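User: We ran a pulldown and think these components assemble together. Before we commit to crystallization trials, I'd like a predicted model of the whole complex to look at. Sequences follow.
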Amino acid sequence: MKAVFKSATTLGVSLLLMSTFVAQPVLANGPIGEHVNHLQANIKDYSEEVEWMIGKVDTMVSDYESKGAKAVKSDDLIEYWESVKFHSAIETNYVPVYASIWQGIYGVKMAIDNNKPAAEARKQQAAINAALWQGLGAVKLAAQFQQKGLLANVKATATAGMTQSATIDEIKHKLDRVVAKYAERLSDEATSIVHDTYLHLFEGVEGTLIEQDAKLVEVLEKDFNVTLPKAIADNKSVDEVRDVINDMHTKLDRAKVLLEKAEKARKDVF
Amino acid sequence: MKRRTFIQGLAAFGAIAALPLPLSRALAANIANPVSVNELPKLEGELTLYLGRGEGGLYENVLQAIQDRNPNFKLGIRRGPTAALANTIVAEAKAGVRRADLFWAVDSGAIGLVSDAGLAQPIPNDLSAQLQPQFRYKDWAPVTGRVRTIPYNTSRLSKEQIPTSIMDIADSDLSIGWAPAYASFQSFVTAMRILEGDDKTAKWLKKIKKRAKTYAGELGVVMAVERGEVDIGFANHYYTLRLKSGKPDAKLDLAFTQQDAGCLVNASGILALNDDPLATHFMRYLLSIEVQGYLAREAYEIPLVNGVPLPEGLPSLANISPPKVDLTQLADLRPTIALMRNSGVL
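Assistant: Here's a predicted model for the assembly, 616 residues in total across the polymer chains.
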């Protein structure tokens, strides 16, 4: 559990930013329950679900280890994960960890489906466990923010106005969702998010940005329209897609600084 | 008269004097003087505006400034893609409800959808009289314009090598960048359908497709032209101006076709959904000298009232002779999308 809170400050800032700027849409895998707006009241359930999930994965890997692939149904892993409320609690609050959980689930599943040594399945199992604990920590922290009124309710539509620099935060969040959907093996949805993010968010800021740093816009244009869609289309590993997006995050951080500078320099309307 | 107003008046006079017919005659027609926000009535009460997304926050700045200036005025804003909001307004009307008092759309096609449904209120004469004559409509007010252009790479071409007819470009040997999935491009194709007919437009699309390189957006097109990946592109004017602002040595300039869809002037626009004078007064703020100047300066959009300077870097209107198209006719994109699909473009 120590690792869960290791980067609590960073996570807290991220959650705060998300609560301020992100109006979360309805997510994949069915509707989100109202419970996500009452995290504190559901922490006990989430904790039990995490322990249940960890137990289920352990049972499956143990059966695989002792009886072989025919003794287990690896698809059940996905059903287990989609059946728990904690699934949407983490998806609405900390997408990077949500992606890691899916990555681990598919890691175990692929190890079993491809008859890899049990040690490989155990390695992936450890990754799921770490991600689940980290996710629970994130949800607990989010619950504290929610109790203090610092976390906006999850909404079905995005209606808030955003400054250009705040739009960059939204773009980064959408890109995190790309990793999550890709880790879920939903490549078409991941690609669709990339295109929508480009057309509906990045396009809105690149006009101002190009006046500040034309080269930066050029490389981000390539990332949005070539590098990232190609990585998805080429079935690169989740880690490789995440690397592309982490690189984009760095460039977007630079973009945000430039946009803030432009906003400050802009003359008043009246 | 204040010195600034006097100078702006001189600038407007100079621009009109240089215009070719028929545009110069149109602009010289009876246009009311632009109004400063200082002359407008204070806004008091509440309105709900449906705002089509655009210009990455600059429209938001305008709305916030109007509210800051009018402390007894409360504006509720619903944001979304322009086409989706237009459909919502029509659907709400069919359901017997009206949630929006105003609709500010980034393109006139969406305005046409609402106008065609008979939901828009007439524009007062004194308000439309502030607009240049070709931008006067009975039930909506264009706010700012954007012109279709041919950005070209100056190290590969001279302006004289670019045909002045959009239809002739299809028969040239120039390499082309385009973004056919882009809404502005589709409005341009709609204008071509209206002006040239479906058959000619389909042939044009097929010919261009053979030599065109496709990009996701029109800024991407302009950047590709500047890099020399293609000779020319099809794009709205402001992408080139912004790129040149950020990269003054960019090997890039603008060319214009003449009196065809290639130099269509499209517009963002606003309409009122009820006859509350407050809604009309709100519209007046968008046509004020200050808001028009802000959007020209910051968003590189073309002001549609007299006496406001054009965006920096846009050539004099004397070089532009747009076709005469009722912009609300651009509302129905379905035949255009079908034509583009049948032509293998989409």
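Chain B touches chain A at residues 37, 53-57, 60-63, 65-66, 69, 77-81, 215-217, 219-220, 223, 238-239, 242-243, 245-247, 250, 290-291, 294, 297-300 (CB under 8 Å). That may be worth checking against your pulldown data before setting up trials.

User: Thanks, that helps.
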